[in-house]
């Protein structure tokens, strides 16, 4: 009660004073420690709020839940059961805003734990995915993406088999197109779920691979985040060895390589080209561990993977993919041939493993100058001379190149230097080189002396 001062009583008509009235259901910020608890109380479905007021309360509460402390307060005030019931109300806007509150809670460990413990909330959230209202579907998917961003949330979703089954069914159903944002969130959820081995197994069980390859097959028909999430999901599946053979049999190698080539050529507009190259190279790397993929990779992916070596973000994945491909009988030579112009990268990727391919190139007399330059750099590596000595007929090929050549005089100088460095390794290597000269019928004493100079036999 506010009373009028005695000095002003003759000037004001309201001599009885002003009586303050308070509406307990008014939607307003308290700006104190009780604001979160008050919003949670207001959101109880038992409170007599109209839909507009309830939506306003949920919107303001979602803003407050950006603070971890406020999330703990909201959970303690019972917001999770309230949201679970609000998700079942008939008004689609109410359901969408309730899902937004769930999405705000799902980021933290405490929120994910509380959502997992509630017996009905995730079931009701999953039911929103079947709504005709686009904002409802988008809000539900947003909550699932936030929930699956953490390990605990992934377990909560996978523990309810109806959730991954519904998600895969949505991606596989071409008759009911999703909004662009819903599509982005859906494939983002797949990328999150398949980070866990169990998630990869479950999604493969529900046949997610065709839906992923449909996106990769038509990269320009989808937003770039959708393409990235689809490729990342394929990478996760191949890493965990679930769906890998199915993907290879469905031309995943060829499709991913086609996207990589288009990206490198600038045919796919991309703001973060290095990151997408990293994901594509990583997917090819994971697929390359399967024997079934190696012939396909050697047929189409050598050149684009070699091109990835110049991109720092993708270089490690591309190098590992090329090494997996090199395990095939004819897998090393194509990559080494393309890398001859950059011997530093060649040795960084293959190191001593490149020796058999370099020997083959010498035998075929393909770009011998670059091959000899690569051998010179390779000899700086530990155990390189032993590896060279074990390479069949390498010293014979080098001995022949030591012969004077009027057309390419530098070749004999380079070959002599390579053999001279090898001969310094020890008497056994020097003897092996001497036998190579004899096998080739080279009996020029000055030539042999240049190779074996300062070598104690």
Question: How would you describe this structure in keywords?
Answer:
457 residues, mainly alpha, Leucine-rich Repeat Variant
What does this structure look like?
- The protein has 457 residues and is mainly alpha-helical.
- It has three domains: 33-160, Leucine-rich Repeat Variant, CATH 1.25.10.10; 187-331; 351-457, no CATH class.
- It contains 29 helices and no strands.
- Helix 19 runs antiparallel to helix 20 (312-325) and helix 26 crosses helix 28 (427-439).
- It is elongated, with a radius of gyration of 34 Å.
- 42% of the residues are buried.
- Residues 23-27 have low confidence and may be disordered.
- InterPro entries: ARM-like, ARM-type_fold, HEAT_type_2, RSP14.
What are the SSEs and their pairings?
Elements (H helix, E strand, L loop, with lengths): L34 H8 L8 H14 L3 H9 L2 H8 L5 H14 L3 H9 L3 H8 L5 H14 L3 H8 L3 H11 L7 H14 L3 H9 L3 H9 L6 H16 L4 H6 L2 H14 L7 H15 L6 H7 L1 H7 L3 H14 L7 H6 L4 H8 L4 H9 L4 H11 L5 H7 L3 H8 L7 H15 L3 H13 L5 H7 L6
What is the strand content? under 5%
User: What profile does the largest beta sheet have?
Assistant: none
Count of helical regions: 29
Q: How many structural domains can be distinguished in the coordinates?
A: 3
Query: Which overall shape is indicated by the principal axes computed on the Cα atoms?
Result: elongated
Which stretches of 5+ consecutive residues score pLDDT under 50?
23-27
Taken in chain order, the helices and strands follow as HHHHHHHHHHHHHHHHHHHHHHHHHHHHH
The value of Rg in angstroms is 34 Å
- Total beta-strand segments: 0
Structural class: mainly alpha
Termini Cα gap: 114 Å
Helix content: 55-70%
How would you state the average pLDDT, rounded? 90
